[in-house]
Amino acid sequence: MLKRCFDFSFAVLGLLFLFPILILIALIIKLNSKGPVLFIQERVGRHNLNFNIYKFRTMYVKSQQKGLLTIGDKDNRVTKIGYFLRKYKIDEFPQLINIIKGDMSFVGPRPELRYYVNFYNEADLIIFKLRPGITGLASLKYRNEVELLKKAKDPEKYFIETIIPDKLKYNKLYLKRRNFFFDLKLIGVTFFRVLFK
After folding, report:
1. 26: closest CA among 18, 64, 17, 110?
2. pLDDT class of 196 with cuts at 50, 70, 90
3. Over the stretch 48-69, which tens digit does the pLDDT of each residue have?
4. What is the mean pLDDT of residues 167-187?
5. How far is CA 40 from CA 4, 37, 125, 195, 197, in A?
């Protein structure tokens, strides 16, 4: 209950505080490339149920038809403003709406596409006891995931066979260790790494 109250309260405050900045970002996105301001995608959330995640659009329209994974920081599907938004995780700001709706939390496993969840085994489904989060143990370890994929000979295979199992290991560890103060610590570490990486 404490976690949910914290999530809801700070998500509302965050939206109110950031509102002028969000409007400015939306205008820049519209001027930078054709397409909607928001990128809405179906992900898998708590209780293994699908929900729509909100992000600022950082890619050109229909880029997902060329692959589900973003490979490297110079992926030519990413717009000019998109590189900046991704670098500082600004594209994640609209997920405050997901938090208010109860789809997500500030801290938890990152919500995955159903296509990749289909590679989980029965024991892995335990992570769906949790609301997915904007940040978490696995997110912090793999904050440069796109660069790891860029170096892989077969990025799709590497993601499925190496990154997914390792992320699941960290998500299960979070499930065991989670508490309100641990969440605050992870939020603090996330801010520090985003600002000073």
Report:
1. 18
2. confident
3. 999 999 999 998 887 766 666 7
4. 96
5. 23, 10, 24, 26, 27
